[in-house]
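Request: Not sure, any thoughts?
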Amino acid sequence: MKNRMILVTGASGYIGGGLIPRLLEKGYRVRCVAREPERLQAYAWSSQVEIRQADVVAGQSLGEVMEGVSAAYYLIHSMASGRRYHERDLAAARNFAAAARLAGVDHIIYLGGLADPSARIGHHMRSRIQTGEVLRQEGVPVTEFRAGVIVGPGSISFEMIRYLAEQLPILVGPRWLHHRVQPVAIQDVLAYLLTALETPACRGLIVEIGGPDVMTYAEAMLIYAQMRGLKRSLLTFPGIPLALMAYGVDRMTPVPASIANPLIDGMRSDSIVQDETAGQMFPTIRPLGYEKAISAALARLSPEEIHSPFSSGQNRNRIIKQMGFLIDDRQVRMAVEPEAVFGVLMHLGGEQGWLFMNWLWRFRGRLDRWWGGPGMRGRKTGRQLEVGDIVDFYRVEALEPGRLLRLRAEMKSPGEGWMEWTVQAQGSRGVALMQKAYFAPRGVPGFLYWYLLYPVHALVFAGLVRGIAHRSIRGATE
């Protein structure tokens, strides 16, 4: 019955955010539960699902959100909540399982961590395994998938590998990097989770999932670097403090120290498949190899693929690291109609210029031409922009009239760049204009380019968004 109600926890997370569109495509009805439901409104699928508020750790409102649910995905963890995350994980699982039993839920599908419970494993991995045990205690059939490193843009593990390998010519880490891991592509993880709904025989089973390639954590990083054309070497040392490693990850990647700490601790042991149940139970799923999974992830290097929205207001004037990008994010609000703002955006570049320090934009164009790039090519005049049009050293990549304009840079640089503007109506309060500059650096030169020039770029980006706002207001009053 494809029209049955499916509950998804962790809907704002990486796995949940990717699973929900697939459930909808299959014809399932989807109910999402979150402590802060407003966070889900930015997703494209938010209008197609039920969104309910509940606190799984506190056990609040769980009974209500479970009503009428056939199967429930448990995709949450408490790693970011501090040292006692283990206790919160078990309390949340206990509350969830009890509410599912009382509501008559038929099936719980849980994604946990891949490790040998009989070995000496990190606290995070132990917590993931014990969470599965607690979910089973109430008697509701549970399918527990256990996965290690998940390869895909936005995966915490993959982003750690990506950002560290891109920035460090010498990869320094603990001896734990020589433990083995069996990475699995995000496409395959989602396929397992989705197929479990239609596979009654998997209920009550623990299913270890991984790709066909087994390697060390160190090799996983070096293979990524090789595929990016980066020369990297490895040094491992005993006794590196966990807090120091987590701090380094916090500073260099999108992963905060509160999450990096338990993740790195989880590398104390192997994370490989020892049971072949996955192949027997799901024979139609043929997992991708590690290099193919990386290629698929790198092929999605575009602002359009950023599916975990962040708040422009909260991150204003900060550098954001996300899915391979360094992002400058700015926002202004104006008491004008959206059409007034978008009209200004439609005429950026060319003879009108860039509304702030235009001489610097032209200087950058001359440098680009000198380095072999296209330079300032101007733009067509007398009509609105269309996808594919040239705008100086940019090209229009995406255009939604009245709402979105995204330009892709074609200038010479050690990375790939975009400028994007989004216009959102704010009811009677006017509009909000979100401006984002995206840069996907390639190796150390790319990161040096971004950070060394950022004081200038920050000045230009701030002036540009103000200039657009001033021109919009002036045009609306003329």
Q: What stands out?
A: Residues 304-477 form a domain with the Alpha-D-Glucose-1,6-Bisphosphate; Chain A, domain 4 fold (CATH 3.30.530.20). The two ends are 59 Å apart (CA to CA).
